[in-house]
């Protein structure tokens, strides 16, 4: 893993890169997919449970990974629209790394968990709309995500999370509150998973996002598991972190289901 600093105008942000080294004995090393990971943390912090363990899991599937250290509430600037501008900057930066690290620019994924899913969902809505994107980001986005993966996602800030005035602190502009409202025909296919018994982020977030994608005929796959709490990450002992509720053999199936979906989408090979 390598920590790197990038800039959007006068704003500096950091990323952790997990580049896969060439195997070395292949005459023609193939380009590999890349997953950009936005962990959760309620916009208060960035949880490590959804950072390196997820990045290494993607690496085990033959994919490069990057963990995006995005702006939080309490930083010097508002979270939105800066977080979308930084993510767009990161995507353009990847183009310059594609030759050295053999990145397949047609197989880039955005991956979000909880609050990180809110970033991914907003990008999939606002930044795929040409007119809206121009208002947020001056430059052309040269690398477009092929698909998204969101787990126990925050989609709509008015559905029960956050409470009190936290939504206003995330953004005073309601444009960024309800990601489902800005989905459009150019939005990307999305894999969605959550537990029905999530007591932190209501499951309705996943349902309304899938419903809007269905109405727009955007490909998606939705998995709702019968039990389990919020923030289980891989739902295995790897991300247990002292909390038994983070281990759930049934919910852990989301990873295999997701990898199968990526194969169906042509992002991972089927053999």
Give a quick rundown of the structure.
The protein has seven helices and eight strands. The model has no long low-confidence stretch (mean pLDDT 94).
SSE arrangement:
Elements lengths: L1 E7 L2 E8 L13 E7 L13 H9 L3 E6 L12 H20 L1 E11 L1 H12 L3 H7 L10 E5 L14 H5 L19 E6 L8 H13 L3 E6 L28 H11 L7
Parallel strand pairs: 3-4, 3-5, 5-6, 6-7, 7-8
Antiparallel strand pairs: 1-2, 2-4
Mean pLDDT: 94
Helical segment tally? 7
CATH topology assignment: Rossmann fold
Instruction: List unreliable stretches of 5+ residues.
Output: none
Question: What characteristic shape results from the CA principal axes?
Answer: globular
The largest sheet has its strands arranged as 1-2-4-3-5-6-7-8
Q: How big a fraction of the residues is strand? A: 15-25%
Tell me how many strands there are.
8
Overall structural domain count:
1
State the distance separating the first and last CA atoms: 28 Å
Question: Can you summarize the main beta sheet?
Answer: 8 strands, mixed
Percent helix, as a range, is 25-40%
**Tell me, what is the CATH class?**
Alpha Beta
Describe the structure.
- InterPro entries: AB_hydrolase_fold (IPR029058), BD-FAE-like_dom (IPR049492), GDXG_lipolytic_enzyme (IPR050300).
- Keywords: Hydrolase.
- GO terms for molecular function: hydrolase activity.
- This is Putative lipase esterase (Putative).
- It comes from Companilactobacillus tucceti DSM 20183.
- With about 270 residues, the chain is α/β, with parallel strands linked by helices.
- The chain has a single domain (about 1-20, about 30-265), classed as Alpha/Beta hydrolase fold, catalytic domain (Rossmann fold, 3-Layer(aba) Sandwich).
- It has seven helices and eight strands, in the order βββαβαβααβαβαβα.
- It has helices at about 50-60, 80-100, 115-125, 130-135, 165-170, 205-215, 255-265, and strands at about 1-10, 10-20, 30-40, 65-70, 105-115, 145-150, 190-195, 220-225.
- An eight-stranded mixed beta sheet has the order 1-2-4-3-5-6-7-8, sandwiched between helices.
